[in-house]
Specification:
Order of helices and strands: HHHH
Strand content: under 5%
Number of helices: 4
Largest sheet: none
Shape: elongated
Distance between the termini: 68 Å
Length: 87
């Protein structure tokens, strides 16, 4: 048994459905969970796989990019010099 706290409005819906369907409240909750799980999984479960539609760079391009050393010292120095420093 799993204790389940329900808002009053939802409990009233479960009770009304049980009475209308001639089922117990437990059966209504079990059937509701079984029917709704696929929708919950579809909506909230993480989808594995790619998160972008941009193709990755080819291996030879990546190798070239990471093989060449970037000299950013001058650009970084200009950015630091351009910042306002409190006096």
């Amino acid at each position: 048994a799993i204790p389940l706290s329900l808002p009053d409005e939802l409990l009233e819906e479960v009770q009304a459905t049980a009475q209308a369907a001639g089922l117990s409240q437990q059966d209504v909750m079990r059937q509701s969970i079984q029917a709704g799980l696929p929708k919950v999984r579809e909506q909230f479960a993480a989808v594995p796989g790619r998160i972008t539609n941009v193709d990755p760079l080819p291996a030879d391009v990546l190798a070239k990019l990471y093989h060449e050393r970037e000299e950013d010292g001058e650009a970084i120095g200009r950015m630091i010099a351009a910042q306002a420093f409190p006096k």
